[in-house]
Amino acid sequence: MIRFEHVTKRYADGTTAVDDLSFEVAEGELVTLVGPSGCGKTTTMKMVNRLIEPTSGRILLAGEDIADADPVQLRRRIGYVIQQVGLFPHRTVLENTATVPQLLGTPKARARARAAELLELVGLDPAVHGGRYPEQLSGGQRQRVGVARALAADPPVLLMDEPFGAVDPVVRERLQNEFLALQKSVRKTILLVTHDLEEAIRLGDRIAVYGSGTIEQFAAPAAVLGSPATPYVASFVGADRGLKRLAVTRVEAADLEPADLEPALDPAGPKAPSGAAPAATVELGASLREALAALLQEDSGRIGVTDPVSGEPAGVLTPAGVHRALRRARAQDA
Ligand SMILES: Nc1ncnc2c1ncn2[C@@H]1O[C@H](COP(=O)(O)OP(=O)(O)OP(=O)(O)O)[C@@H](O)[C@H]1O
């Protein structure tokens, strides 16, 4: 969907911000660009909507060289979310969200109805927040409006530059989770810039780890953590990558013990107050981090795992199961 072919950007003062970059983002894929300040992430992103023109190389969007596209037409196909959301201060939240579709000719009533739907989708109540002005919102709420506004024109591609940067870590994690759930339903092709490795890991289908103007590794989060391609990537992901790995490894059925083993041994049956059936549960597919957090709260050393589709118990997870999952993840990376 987005393809970089040997793209270089040299600024007028001679700074090479991006050096011979080639990579591809598939349709519906979310790729995070992560790396230290000044490594060329924002330059990469702004070349996609032609806020910055490459010095050499080319960028294709859905197979078309964007150099041949009219920049205004191009930007209509590409939503853009930035950290300092850039809402119009004298327009209400609803008006802000409906602005782009209205500019594109959608009748006012329809644009507003759609804006209200989108506000709801990003977790804001249009009846409560729609009539407010940006200054009457918290930082996290403003960022949600920024995401809703970018989605309003229904562009196939979204560029997001530190979209959750301006909020505290707790709100940030909530926004990230909501955004992931949203992405599952809207399936946009997304390039997201962050300097925060945890964010890159949590959100990215794949991560591009930047060195200085070049990509040192372009791979799924588990592969970046499990098999760093270069010493630079290894030091960037850090010594605690074992812990970070928990966030990207999922609980699978093969990691579980049968759910009915212990209750069957318990003469009082599964409903006995003996605590045989674990109180805490997670769903199959939950991250190991979530599972481990639940496990640490359980004196019994086991938690229940349910099937998210049927809601039925799928089995029981113990510390041995966590080890099994980690071994499996390591084997898959090898
Ligand atoms: N207009 C410009 N003229 C000259 N150099 C620039 C210009 N814009 C950016 N640079 C330089 O290009 C390099 C890459 O900048 P870029 O903004 O792409 O980095 P970044 O990875 O997004 O950084 P940050 O995380 O701090 O936003 C930096 O060395 C920066 O100083």
From TrEMBL:
Residues 273-332 form the CBS domain. Residues 2-237 form the ABC transporter domain. Transmembrane segments: none annotated. SUPFAM superfamilies: P-loop containing nucleoside triphosphate hydrolases. Keywords: ATP-binding, CBS domain, Nucleotide-binding, Transport. InterPro entries: AAA+_ATPase, ABC_transporter-like_ATP-bd, ABC_transporter-like_CS, CBS_dom, P-loop_NTPase. GO terms for molecular function: ATP binding. Belongs to the ABC transporter superfamily. This is ATP-binding cassette domain-containing protein. It comes from Streptomyces bambusae. The lineage of its organism: Bacteria, Bacillati, Actinomycetota, Actinomycetes, Kitasatosporales.
